[in-house]
Amino acid sequence: MFRYIVTLLLLTAATAVHAQTAVRTRKLPATLGLESGFASFETSDFSIKLVNASQTLAALQPKSATGFDFTPADRLKDRANDDFYQFGDINFRIRVAPGEWRYFSTASNRKPVTPLVTSAPDLARSDLTPSLSPDCPVQVIRTWTVRNAKLVLQFELINKTDQAIEIGHLGIPLIFNNIITDRTLAEAHDKNTFSDPYIGLDAGYVQVTRLKGNGPALVVVPEGDTPFEAYQPLREPTRPQQTAEGMFEWVVRSKALAEKEWGKAEPWNPPTSEILPPKGRRVIGLRFLLAGNIRSIEDTLKTNGRPVAVGIPGYVLPNDIEGKLFLNAPSKVLGVTIDPETAMTVTPARPPSSKWQAFVIKSNGWGRARVTIKYANDTRQSINYYLTKPAHQVVADLGKFLFTKQWYENPSDPFGRSPSIMGFDRETNKIVEQDHRVWIAGLGDEGGGGSWVAAAMKEFVAPDADEIGKFEQFIDGVIWGGLQYKDGPNKYGVRKSMLYYAPNDFPNFAYDKDRNWTTWASWKKEQAMSIGRGYNYPHVVIAYWSMYQNARNGLAKAHPWDWYLTQAFETTKFAFSKKPDGKYRVEYVELGLMEGTIFLELFKDLRREGWTSQATELERLMKDRADAWAKEQYPFGSEMAWDSTGQEEVYAWCNYFGYDDKARVSLDSIIGYMPSIPHWGYNGNARRYWDFLYAAKLQRIERQIHHYGSGLNAIPVLDYYRSHPDDEHLLRIGYAGGNAALTNIDRDGFASAAFHSYPDTLKWDAYSGDYGMNFFGYAMNAATYVADMNEFGWQAFGGNIRVNGDRVVVTPLDSMRRRVFIAPLGLWLNLDAGSFSSIEIDKKKRTVSVVLSPATPNVIEARLRVEQTAKLKSFAPERSHKTERGAWVIKLRAVVTKIELTEE
Q1: Which ranges of the chain have pLDDT less than 70?
Q2: Which residues contact 272 (CB under 8 A, 6 or more apart)?
Q3: Beta strand 819-822 with 784-789: parallel, antiparallel or unpaired?
Q4: pLDDT tens-digit map of 847-865
């Protein structure tokens, strides 16, 4: 199941490379000096090796994980040339005012360093002058040392001149083992790491986790005055690729970068410089901490006197949600600065204990905002937030934009794409009617299906009669019989794209001459008509399933509900059917598919409807796949060499069929790449870094902020949390990932594929692209979570909460208001129809009062599902109500309706 398409990716990247990752073509000599051997050292946490000639790091092995290395030690020979960075290098740009910035790097023209005499606790000390230009006015002394039993890397910069020098860029390369090239999935999970930055000034850090999601984690923090001001990719002789994300730099000062390279991008923190006085000295450094596991990273920070921030419900804050910010720091808060100044209010609140300082946050603005905290010890901490309209309004805006600006009507379209919801270019404010990556304008794959999948799920989250009517036109006019075969041997098969390159067949269609139609991505007719890509099938099932849900409640009119349910089932059955030789008819379906959760939701609905034969057939098809996954060590392969999308469906079916070990392996993998970070962009951000090549306007390999991995991977995280409600880490990362999809939607409702994380851009991509898969994750996760947290007491994620003695009142404010999870009771409440107005919990009596919103012309009955997901006592309504498809049917009043749930 471990597939390699690296060549294909490199061919694509060759036409899409960005200056930040430009390839150097000159032949480079090997200058690291590996032939000189290594020096070995021990600390309480690590076994360390340094290259004798360069005194750069050659190995950083945690003693608690034998044979594992956080650095790419096994690639050292491949990375021994000039311009490959090592841990222990330094970069800086300096000038003597009013001169130009001059760049210096110890990696550009490496020479053996000059060793200096060391004494305990120093491990190695050297003068880096030989590796710097002869006319460099700054001497750099590097020291590897141990302080308070922790490994420290320190640089001392010395101004050799009688003139003041301005330092406009000061960076420390961070070299971790993210190179998974030529490795099997098992080898990658055993050997490789991912790193995630908290770009938080003096409180900043980088966490380095194993792909497998368990075992020790590395936490790199400032030593002394070394603020984490910015984070940027390093330019190396080999560009990043799908199997190697690239190396990055901890940037202490960034003014010169902002002036010269970052253009008009808005940095995470204000760019600064500093003055190195004549003959002056400046010391910066990093400290290496070892956490026992990912969940203990924050405890490790606290133990080592580092500030820790916990935002509830996270760092994406709708205007109607009351946010909480808890700070555990060795110093008192002196002041708080907000940028933009009017975007938020931050008010001190009663702390949960003496260990914490607490604040209430109210959002008044929209978009990016930054809170900067000044402590009494003169250190600063920045926390980046993203502010949105209330969630229900964001979703309404999305629907309006999709069904107006992105609604495509052109009866003469030769490819039969009308009427439909198509991709959009926000820079030109036009529908993307053609792209040489034909699927983007062909309604296929993720890049072309994204907008109509978002539209389908919008109608599940917040149905609108006019929009549903249009979507039904799209199904009848484009999907059924167009994108999906409606007859013949391929009936129910899904094409890869409706657009393809055939200028001779369509002489009246003006293919854009400025595009390169000779690439592999410009499919011809045969490729576009292929039914062979399994990843396309969940999209179509989602369209039918959403309309089934609405038809069941009387909102979809073009077909009865059973037609939509049948279409969803038959599409699924075709996708997983086999040929006479026993092989799957459609490729990739032996893998976990993104949005594959939809098949489990379909299965549940088939059972609820009493469609026993169809449910049994679907269960059999899924069992075949799950049985195969159960035999694999890491069962979530992909069409990519490594991916973060298969875990979602593998978890779902392994969990259903009782393959708990494989469900847990999938979950642990997600925990490994889905961090808890005090920053809206990285918090809950499941790792994706190559899909800009396939669905974005700005094409490059780059860490994607809140691409669809965030929403999809939150599904299994929150599902597991509901059955293990004591695991608060899962609640925090799962809610963050699920809620992240709101940030992609702009003020008018346009939804971007993802946010560009490179500091020269830091903005949303102009294409809508494959956003819909992210919104599917959002829709599956949208809920209000109520938890009695270990350190912070009763809190709500997705709503507002008030605690008065034994009485807890929660107002759900997520966009659906149809799901509430009460963690202390293990109680999962779902409404098929109707909405929650509030939930009242009596902690002492252990009762729950469900307050339902008033009846509307379209909704006169609520259908309430009461599920006990954790092994606790079950709840049911006090009064008897009839049931329908497993839900309690409750007649709604003109005013609110109150239902009491008590333990049975």
Answers
A1: 1-30
A2: 229, 253, 254, 255
A3: parallel
A4: 999 999 999 988 899 999 9
Domain check: are 897 and 868 in the same one? yes
C-alpha 486, offset from chain centre? 36
In a domain, 147, yes or no: yes
The Cα–Cα gap between 598 and 448 comes to 19
| Nearest of 601, 547, 602 to residue 571 by alpha carbon | 602
User: Tokens for 53?
Assistant: 């000639």
Q: Is the same domain home to 837 and 740?
A: no
CB neighbours (10 Å) of residue 430? 10
Task: Classify residue 475: in a domain, yes or no.
Answer: yes
CATH code: domain of residue 328: 2.60.40.10
| Site of tokens 């600006």 | 405
Count helices and strands (H / E) in the chain.
18, 44
Residue 704 pLDDT: 98
At residue 467, the 3 state secondary structure works out as helix
The domain that holds 92 is classified in CATH as 2.70.98
In whole angstroms, give the CA distance from residue 481 to residue 487.
Answer: 8
pLDDT value at residue 29: 55
* Residue where a domain stops, chosen among 339, 360, 388: 388
Map residue 739 onto helix, strand or coil. helix
CA distance 209 to 305: 21
How many Cβ atoms from other residues are within 10 Å of residue 516's Cβ?
10
Last residue of a domain, one of 242, 276, 300: 300
Q: How far from 856 is each of 235, 834, 860, CA to CA, in Å?
A: 59, 9, 6
pTM passes above 0.90: yes
CB 289 within 8 A of CB 301: yes
SS3 393: helix
Which residue intervals of 759-861 are DSSP H helices?
Answer: 771-781
Same domain, 757 and 825: no
Q: Which domain holds residue 631?
A: 391-781
CA distance 38 to 76: 12
> Do 375 and 399 belong to one domain?
no
Residue 579 resides in a domain: yes
Order of strands across the sheet with 827-833? 793-797, 784-789, 819-822, 827-833, 861-868, 887-891, 883-884
C-alpha span between 851 and 680 (Å, rounded): 32
Same domain, 401 and 378: no
The number of beta carbons lying within 10 Å of the beta carbon of residue 2 is 16
